[in-house]
Amino acid sequence: MRMTVKTVIVTADEDAAELAAGSPENVTVSDRIGAIPRHILFEDGSVFETDDNDAVDDWLASRFCSRTGILHRLERFHPRLALFALLVVVLFAGLYRYALPAAVELAVAATPPDATRLLGQSVLSSLDHSSVLTPSTLPQERQDAIAGQFRDLTRKTPQGEDAFTLLFRGGEHIGPNAFALPDGSIVLTDALVGLAPDDDAVLGVLAHEMGHVAGNHSLRSLYRAAGATTLILFISGDVGSGIHDILVQGTGLAALSYSREQESEADRYSVTLMTKAGRDPAGLARMLESLDRHPHAEDGTDFFSSHPATPARIEAIRRHAAQPPEG
Amino acid sequence: MNRTENNAAPVDKPEDIRPEPFQFTGTGREYFGIWIVNILLTIVTFGIYSAWAKVRRQRYFYGNTRLAGHAFDYHARPKQILIGRIIVLAGLFTYNIVVNLFPLASLALLLLLFLILPWLIMRGLRFNARVTSYRTVRLDFHGRYWGAAKAYIAGPLLAAVTLGILAPLATRWAWRYSLGNLRYGGRPVACDPNLKSLYGQWWLSALIVLIGFVLLGGFSMSIYGFLGWEDSLMTKNEIRIAILSTTYLFMLSIILIYAFAGLFYRAGTRNIALNAAILDERHHFSSALSRRRYAWIAISNLLATLFTLGLARPWAAVRMARYVAAATTIRIDGSLDDYLNQVTETGPAISAEYLDMEGFDFGF
Lengths: 327, 364
Prior knowledge:
The complex is a heterodimer.
Chain A lengths: L1 E2 L4 E4 L6 E5 L5 E2 L8 E4 L5 E4 L2 H12 L5 H6 L4 H31 L2 H17 L4 E2 L4 H16 L9 E6 L7 E3 L4 E5 H6 L3 H16 L2 H19 L5 H36 L6 H11 L17 H12 L5
Parallel strand pairs in A: 8-10
Antiparallel strand pairs in A: 1-2, 2-3, 4-5, 5-6, 7-8, 9-10
Helix pairs in contact in A: 3-8, 5-7, 7-9, 7-10, 8-9, 9-11, 10-11
Chain B lengths: L16 E8 L3 H17 L5 H14 L1 E3 L2 E5 L3 H24 L4 H25 L1 E3 L2 E5 L3 H17 L5 H12 L3 E3 L2 E5 L3 H6 L1 H26 L8 H40 L1 E3 L3 E5 L3 H17 L5 H14 L1 E6 L2 H11 L18
Antiparallel strand pairs in B: 1-2, 1-10, 2-3, 3-4, 4-5, 5-6, 6-7, 7-8, 8-9, 9-10
Helix pairs in contact in B: 1-2, 1-11, 2-3, 4-5, 5-6, 8-9, 9-10, 10-11
């Protein structure tokens, strides 16, 4: 192949007949990647294939003074690649540690209240329709008493009374249980009220659930899981299918540890709020102890099984409750 | 056209048939640079470069896969890959919103997904074929929707429901669809692996699963038995945690057993399928993977990648590509150059680089 300034001419050898020719402007040269053959495509559709990558690059450089092949120069085996590897580790850690939480915060802030209301209502209606939840059979006066104390508690929060709604439900399958929905609805089962040693134990659990609402925990988990999946989908590239599966499993485990963090945050919220309301801050700890003794706890289907009521957790609440109130 | 037409000898004279092995010429050292720069630029550009990264990676692997001295080529444009990825991401986003906001509608959405999945697979196979060329001649794919539904929805479902007993049937459908619908320069590839031969490769994997299950069953029975013991020294809470983690390990072991047996099965059935594949009724493919060697490479690759925090991945990927290419051969009937001239003369009359590639890569 000869490459003059004006034309590119391909011949079998120096003197042989011209096989293909074209002006350099109308010739497309494929990018250099490793040592794979280069393709030079002519206007008439003919293709010239060569393994002489350096000659093609020399010609391109002299002809266009272009910076073609900058990627290839970066990719060449060089001590610099060790720096790149280090940079990848640092950037990936930074992305996971800082960019992901920041994106989650942004998404939480951008979520309209209508969407969270819809989210809460649809979850509740699907639970009601599938009879996971049944109407409460608790006597009306007992319901009113708990609801009254709950209202007093909500008045002590910065979000105010309207941010929370208490709902009484029965439900054989889920046993003694309480959970919060993203719209501020807090569902309390009859079995949990029946198991509670005293009212402060019930209110401690409700304050814990209010902590989940105040911290937007369900919305955060949702966005975080989506963000982590996107991160793996896009960033990981060629890691092999085995490692890919392990990474996906890993985000599942990371989500578990994330939910444990949320539990301790809600525990602290409960202690602080109960203290502020002039109630016993260790009520939640007493409830957790009762739950652990309850036979239902054994089959592992109750809400608390996702974060076992370990003695460590109960102790943390007690320790926190014994401290003088902050602020 | 060197052979004279009036030659009385039969066409399939043994000396006319030359086995041409595939060869992979990439190196771990070279691919490492491409791989790490791909990841770095993908992170720096918040994922946008991933489309360019994919093209560079594919071009490296295709360009290093050689047959009779010539390399394959990959022609997808990064923008097509990027658009495909944006569509997939938007789809996942919408799916997640609908599932969370309207849990009752998610069943209908799942059904819809099942309905469009065969179409996506079909388009993906077609895209991948059309962006692949060898000696400037493109591949093409002629599979249809129902073929994909049978091979990739009905087949796996049937295999799963029968706990793997009908897996060879699903494998047969999948190979018949993915390979049997390929065209090279308009010339068809035929592939109809024999069910009996596929079952010949099945029993070893079935035995591995069976032995694995027996061992796992005995092991977990004794653990659960110990946990249920009345005089256990553990508290109720400790027992609960132990049961949960044992159950998790149990599920993990089942997945690992199937994955391990699957390696042997995949290598064995690939041999059967390729040995039954013929290009243009003349050129026979053949594959001679050793099942044990294939499983060993796959497992040691995974472990090496894991223990080097991913850094050994380029070496591992190249190692596997080398082994699989070296075990694959095509027996060329007659002269390859003559055949290629014929194909270019009679095939779709556009050069490979100019063939318009409609469609996007959805990454299936």
